[in-house]
Amino acid sequence: MKITKITALALTTTLATGAAFAQDRDGWPESFTVGTASQGGTYFAYGSGWANLVAEELGLTGGGEVTGGPMQNMALVHTGEAQFGMTTMGPAAESLQGTNPIAPGLAMTNACAMFPMYQTPFSVTALSSSGISSIADIPAGARIGFGPAGSTSDTYFPRMMEELGVDFERRNGGWSDLGGQLQDGLLDVIAFAAGVPVPAVSQLEVQTDVNIIEFTEEEQAQIMAAFPVSEFDIAADTYTTLESDARSVSMWNFAIANCDLPASFVYEVVDVVMSDNERMVNIHRAARSTLPENWDKNTVLMWHPGAAQWFTENAGAEIAADMIHGDM
C-alpha cells in the first residue's frame, strides 16, 4: 500500500493520536450498522465484509444491512438510522441538493465522507442466446433490469439508455433476482452499475453463456458529456467471458458516516479499513482502489472530522477546512 511520506515528528504524533483514540471510547455506540444494497451486488459483499472486519478489530457488534443502495443509504446515515453506509458521488450530490427521491426537499447534510471505496463501472449483460452483443442490438421495448429502485444504476442507467436512443421497459429488483429473471427469459438485458466483478454476473457465467456488452467509443463519449462519469475499462481478467478489456464509464463510491459520530470512533474505523489493503482485497477485488491516495476523489461531501484527521496524518491529505464538518 502506498502511503505519502511523513516526517518522524508527524509519525510520532500520529501514533500517539491513534493510541489515544484507541483508549478513548467516550460516546462510541455499542453496535453499528453499515447500509449496503441488495444481495448479489458488490455493495452487499464489500459492505458486509468491512463491517465484519471493523467489528472484529474494534471488539464491537456490527454488520451490513440490505438496503436500496446509495440513495437510501444517504437517508439512513443522515437520520442516524444507520451509523455508516456506502454511496456514489452522483446520488450523494443529489441528496445534498435535496433531490433524493426518498425525501424530496430534504438536504441530507448530516452524512459525511469517511473513506474512498472504488469506482462503479456501468455495464450491460445479456444472454448470448439473445443475440444482443452491442447497445445498438437492444430491441425496441426490451425489458431491462436496472437494479433496486433508487440505486445508482436505477438513477442513472435509464437516463443513459435514453441518451443513447434505446427504447425499453424499466424493471427493478435485487441483482440476484434480476440475474435469475434474465436466465429465465423474463428480462432481455441487465444494466449493472456496481463494483466489478459483480457477484450476480460471475454467478451467471457459471450457469450459462452471457455477453458482457461494452460501449463504443462514440457511446462512451456521448455518456461522459451528459453525465458525471469518467472513462473506465473493465479489465479482461474480471470475468471469464471477457477476452479483452471492455470499454465503460464509472462513478466513484465513498463510505459515509453520520456526521455526529465521535471523531475517535470514525478515526479508528478508517484506520482498520485503510491500514491493510490486502485484507480489504480479500473481501472483494474492487477494494484494490480502496487506497489512501484516493481521498481526493471526494469533491462532493463534507468530511467527517475523524476521517479527515486520519487522511491528513496518514496520507498527506490536504483537506480544506470548509470541507470538514464542524471543528476538528
Q: How would you sum up this structure, described in words?
A:
- The protein is α/β, with parallel strands linked by helices.
- The chain has 2 domains: 8-119 and 253-323, Periplasmic binding protein-like II (D-Maltodextrin-Binding Protein, domain 2), CATH 3.40.190.10; 123-251, D-Maltodextrin-Binding Protein, domain 2, CATH 3.40.190.
- 37% of the residues lie in helices and 20% in strands.
- It has 11 helices and 10 strands.
- It has helices spanning 8-23, 42-58, 70-79, 89-96, 152-163, 175-183, 199-207, 217-226, 263-274, 277-283, 305-314; strands spanning 31-35, 61-65, 84-88, 111-127, 142-145, 168-171, 189-193, 210-213, 230-234, 246-258.
- Strands 1, 2, 3, 4, 5, 6, 7, 8, 9 and 10 form a 10-stranded mixed sheet that branches.
- α2 (42-58) packs across α9 (263-274), α6 (175-183) runs parallel beside α7 (199-207) and α9 (263-274) packs across α11 (305-314).
- The radius of gyration is 20 Å and the shape is globular.
Defining key terms:
single chain; 328 residues; alpha/beta; D-Maltodextrin-Binding Protein, domain 2; 2 domains; ten-stranded mixed beta sheet; 11 helices; 10 strands; globular; disordered N terminus; TRAP_TAXI
- Topology as a string of helices (H) and strands (E): HEHEHEHEEHEHEHEHEEHHH
Shape: globular
Distance between the termini: 27 Å
Query: In DSSP terms, counting alpha (H) and pi (I) runs of 4 or more, how many helices?
Result: 11
CATH class group of the largest domain: Alpha Beta
